[in-house]
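Lab manual, section 2.4: Encoding a predicted structure.

Procedure: take the sequence of the chain (212 residues), apply the prediction step described in section 2.3, and record the output as structure tokens. A sample record is shown.
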Amino acid sequence: MMAHYRLVGSLPAGLIVAVMVTACAGSAPAPIEPSPLVISAAGIGAAAIGEPPFAVLEELTGRIGGPDADSQWIDADSDLYGKCPAEQIRAVGWGSLYLIFTSDETVTPDNEHIVGRFFSYSYGFDFSRNEGGTDPRELGLTTAAGIGLGSTRSELRLAYGDTLAESYDAVADIWEWEVGATEPTFLRGLLSGPGAEAAVTLIERVPGCGDV
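Recorded output:
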């Protein structure tokens, strides 16, 4: 260390600056990678249920880019998204991730941040293409237990144990699952079939449109 400072002291001023800059650059910490977006009954990453649309959209746009679809504010009794417990809704989608915002009164540019709120979400069905079990944006979202689209029934059971409930709807011919249904809010979804290796094709937050 002493020899290093004697060497620098004998250099011209311009070279001293260059040496100092190089030393600082070499010791700069590595950039911090953003934490993965975790989906839960409480929201998506830092985008929490109940927050105003601008805050949620700013958070997610910063993390996964601009959305592919935005219904803007429409009547809450929607043929596409189902009847929602509100006056108006707004659906914003990234591939097969759709967020539903609701408002108990008519939304204007001046009051959206006051009356609008993040109500629920669905991951695995692309409303714009009428396709299920897809992730065209390759978002790869998972729950805190590591369950995402494509996870198997075996993995679902291992992750959630006794808190997992499964059922079969013979009329619709679909296999359903839900986790934490004893709580006011929870997660549920669909599986591709009856076997142990059947894949998770849908994850959504409850309550959603049609549940209230």
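Check your result against the sample. Residues 1-11, 15-24 have pLDDT under 50 and may be disordered.
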